[in-house]
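Narrative of activities, Objective 1.

The group set out to show that a structural description can be obtained from nothing but a protein's sequence at a throughput compatible with the screening campaign. Below is one input-output pair from the validation batch, recorded exactly as produced.
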Amino acid sequence: MVSTDRVNGAGCALSMCASSMRITNTDIDGIKIFDPGRHFDERGWSSELWNSSVLGTDEFGVSFVQDTLASSSQSGTVRGMHFQFPPHDQGKLIICLSGAIFDVALDIRDRSPTYGRHVELKLCGDDPRQCWIPSGFAHGYCTLEPNTKVLYKLTAPYEARSAGGVLWKDVSLKIDWPIDVKEAVVNDRDNDWPCLGDIESPFRWDG
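Output recorded for this entry:
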């Protein structure tokens, strides 16, 4: 396990793309950490968060159709663990624009060798690292600072009737949330999702 600045169990296979984008493959197939780097000058810094000619269909077979911005006013706010049922399943690119989050991607692909395992890392507004989460994973995070804003780039639109989830505090997941679980700011829906052992996953591992 990493503290909030590491990747959980990540065997880091690094590759470079055009521009300054670095891609880190974690030890869970499909989850990737993108680091676009920063370009500094006397004004501050800039970062090319997404470039379809660099990381578009040729590299990952993805096309984003919706951007969603989530703003959380309080530290210790939990959102997750979410997924959408096929045929409305989504891939997600998670970018923290301000503040900081403890981000988690949980493998729920039936027959996957890493089923029930997760990747966790810290994302923050001062560092443009991003987390790519393909279909077949439940995703969630907790905020580590007040006034945190998170951008989701999605490969399929949000469909309320297709929404699914796994209970974020299910002890069997062994997620070491860096907050007091009893003090978390969380809505009723996210506190009512079933535990992983009580769901029939709609996803199948095709490895």
